[in-house]
User: Which sequence fits this backbone?
């Protein structure tokens, strides 16, 4: 497997920012079978920062297999303290 990932994030205003990311990769059974046929995907999106790190990410990604939207939230925003057992 060979994988390359490049990305950039930039603050626009206050906690709001934008980012772009490119990924290339290829999978083969043997190292000698890896060539220059890398699959590429791209992602762009908005971030909301908390404490200097992206806490909420809204993005759209596309590549050879199609496109999809995604949203992630940092678990620490959900009260990352210890949870009581459910049993």
Assistant:
């Amino acid at each position: 497997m060979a994988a390359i990932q490049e990305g950039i994030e930039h603050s626009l205003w206050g906690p709001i920012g934008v980012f772009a990311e490119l990924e290339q990769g290829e999978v083969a059974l043997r190292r000698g079978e890896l060539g220059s046929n890398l699959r590429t995907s791209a992602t762009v999106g908005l971030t909301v920062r908390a404490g200097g790190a992206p806490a909420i990410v809204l993005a759209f990604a596309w590549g050879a297999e199609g496109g999809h939207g995604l949203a992630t939230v940092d678990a620490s925003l959900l009260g990352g303290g210890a949870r009581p057992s459910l049993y």
Remarks:
- Residues 20 and 44 are 4 Å apart (CA to CA).
- The longest strand covers residues 2-13.
